[in-house]
Amino acid sequence: MTDALKVTSSNIMAVNLSDATMEVVAEYWSSEAAPLETQSDLGRVYANSDYATIMQFMLDGQVLILHADDDKLTSIEKNQFTLYDVKSMMFVPIMAHGQLLGDIELWESRHRREFTAAEIRLAQAMTGHAAGIIENSTLFAITRQRESELGALLRVARAVSSSLQLSDVLMQAATTLSRLLRVDYCSLSDYLPDQNGIMTSALFSSDEDVSGPGDIGHFFSLDEYPTTLQVLESGQSTVIRLDDPNADPSEIKQLKRDKMFTSLLIPLRLRGRSLGLAELFSSDPQRNFKPEEVQFASALADQGCRGS
Does residue 154 form part of some domain? Predict the structure, then answer.
């Protein structure tokens, strides 16, 4: 691709419209690429919203050619030229079944370049090969994620079956949830319906106990947390975010107190009855829990609940 069009470098980006992100899945450089241009970005993820000009053309299925001195660029798009010392870029959408999969980015760092109609057609002809690269990388990522999830379920199941210590089971479940769901920490609580409350039993990040003095055994009255009560009674997980104007004020207050931005509340259930609660906390404003992540977390939490 780089050699065929005689550019200094090229990248293949996979676009995830549901996540509003794009990821570098392949990159190539020629021997004439600028030193800054040859910095590897493989695997790096970008927010689509930061590249509004480019994304609009890609979604419309149109080729876009930009130059470093264009005035229609967003500040982040313009910074991309400076960061990699590039003079001109061509973006070619990669479509399949009417869906945007990603784009090919062709960079020229030696001089400003006006791509010809023939060169644009050649770049468009290469998108079929690029689509295969994206589909293979997506399949690999899904397979790797499924293997990771199955391994996590197996580790928790082993902890349940091999340990008589509830603390060991709780630690395995909480640390696994924190690691795979990429959150700051996980809190596990016992549900005390006769007292209409929950009591914290574990507080772990992905690799250690993060509980402070007074955390374990702390009692929360569900009179003050109606959303938590609803989760326990309905058996349905829910997400709380600081930027949600309809969120439970008591849950928002807790997020602010703990300097977190979002939380995922998961009921711990056994035979259709809630025995406890798992709460996953993240300080990242960009963290959005996907439905499949919630489903996996619920399955993992329920597995750990079998040891209680």
Answer: no
